[in-house]
Amino acid sequence: MELKEGTSVFTPSGEEVGNIKRFVIDPATKEVTHVVVQKGWLLREDKVVPIKMINSANEARVELDQQVEDYELLPPFEETHYVEAPEKEDYGQSATRAVPVYWYPPVGYLASPTYGPTIYNWPPVETKLNIPEHTVPLKEGADVISVDEKHVGGLERLFVSSDNDRVTHFVISQGLLLKERKLVPAHWVDRVEEDKVHLTVSADLLDRLPAYDEEHEAQRE
Q1: What pLDDT was estimated at residue 155?
Q2: Looking at the 3D structure of the chain, how many domains does it have?
Q3: Domain range holding 43?
Q4: Residue 134 falls within a domain, yes or no?
Q5: In sequence order, what DSSP letters do the residues of the chain get, joined into one string?
Q6: What is the CATH number of the domain that holds 172?
Q7: Lowest mean pLDDT among 114-118, 129-133, 205-209
Q8: What is the pTM for the complete model shown?
């Protein structure tokens, strides 16, 4: 199964849901647990889709294996919550002892968001990601760093085993050091961050790998 950012995602009935935006990966096991699907015709916000819902995936198309009645019920990738005001900020509510909160949109003031009776500012918020604990929402284009701390290129796509949903290989795009795209085994990965993939091998070894082409892809299939 091939996962590439920007690939269109379809329902079993052929409706386009959106596009692949990120890969949610467990760095310890290299398992892809979810993908983030960017909002499209059926989605009004980015959604987290379990990898188990994907029936097939290639460079041109990702197809889900079940018809979800309402895709809006899938968890959003990001959720933003407005936070309570500090206790020391008393907005004259001591009679009711109600907890002051920040609100948006602004009340009675058109120029900016408002909190409190006389203070105008952006309300403090906190944002959480609806992905499993200890996983990373890996971006396509994430910098790939060799063991000798050289930026060798960017992450282009992942190849995932249909048996256990683990990444088997990934493609590094051309960069300043690599003049050709390279197919790299996943066990060469040391650690994964949201925008960086660190390898256990040197830039020189990567440079000596054969270029990734259609022949390699045909062999993998």
Answers
A1: 93
A2: 3
A3: 2-77
A4: no
A5: -EE-TT-EEE-TTS-EEEEEEEEEEETTTTEEEEEEEEP-SS-SS-EEEEGGGEEEE-SS-EEESS--S-GGGSPBSEEEEEPBPPTT---S-TTTTPPPB--SS-SS-SSS-EETTTEESPPPEEEEE-S-TT-EEEETTPEEE-TTS-EEEEEEEEEE-TTT-BEEEEEEPP-SS-SS-EEEEGGGEEEE-SSEEEESS-HHHHHTSPBP-HHHHHHH-
A6: 2.30.30.240
A7: 114-118
A8: 0.69
